[in-house]
Amino acid sequence: MFKVGQLIVYGNRGIYRVDKVGIPEIEWLKPQTEYYTLLPVFKEDKIYIPVDTSVYMRPVMSKDEMIGLMKGLYAPNGFDTAESRNPRSQEAIYKSEIESHDVKRILGLIGVLWEKRRSFDQKGKRLSQIDEKYLTIAENIFYEEVAVVFDVTLDEAPDIVKRVILE
């Protein structure tokens, strides 16, 4: 169970702060059910999630954990970055990586797509719309957590990642 004030990753929606834990007095919620009241760190919103939800949630990682993951960004990835790859199957792979909620897999996807972009740039080509879409999704998910862990803005998060990787 998460504690009030704790920062958590909620699905692929981003970083949230646990504002309350308890039975809210809201008519449309299930009565006598405990809920987390979650406030997003980077958006305006408030959500109520049953404490026993099946939605993926985890505490925000520590700075040391994050640095270790970023240092291993180009670790084994198993992705095929070939240009001839079927776009539908490539999209299914990317979607699976995102929906895994596994930070290592999401970072692996980012690393592969960065490498693919670098390779394509050298050939005067651009990433496909599918590649760009999933790179943006993966980066947004990861950059929110980087910003919270390093106490920087979302705009500063990409520079933190690059600095840590290049150290």
What is this structure, in a nutshell?
With 167 residues, the chain is an alpha+beta fold.
Structure description:
The chain has helices spanning 63-71, 87-99, 103-122, 129-150, 157-166; strands at residues 7-10, 14-22, 35-40, 47-50, 57-59. With 167 residues, the protein is α+β, with helices and mostly antiparallel strands. The protein has a five-stranded antiparallel β-sheet with strand order 4-3-2-1-5. Strand 3 and strand 4 form a beta hairpin. Helix 2 (87-99) runs parallel beside helix 4, helix 3 crosses helix 4 (129-150) and helix 4 packs across helix 5. The chain is globular. The model has no long low-confidence stretch (mean pLDDT 88).
Features:
5-stranded antiparallel β-sheet, 5 strands
Give the overall shape, derived from the CA principal axes. globular
Q: Characterize the biggest β-sheet.
A: 5 strands, antiparallel
**Helix fraction bin:** 40-55%
What is the terminal separation in angstroms? 36 Å
Q: How are the elements arranged and paired?
A:
Elements: E1 7-10, E2 14-22, E3 35-40, E4 47-50, E5 57-59, H1 63-71, H2 87-99, H3 103-122, H4 129-150, H5 157-166
Antiparallel strand pairs: 1-2, 1-5, 2-3, 3-4
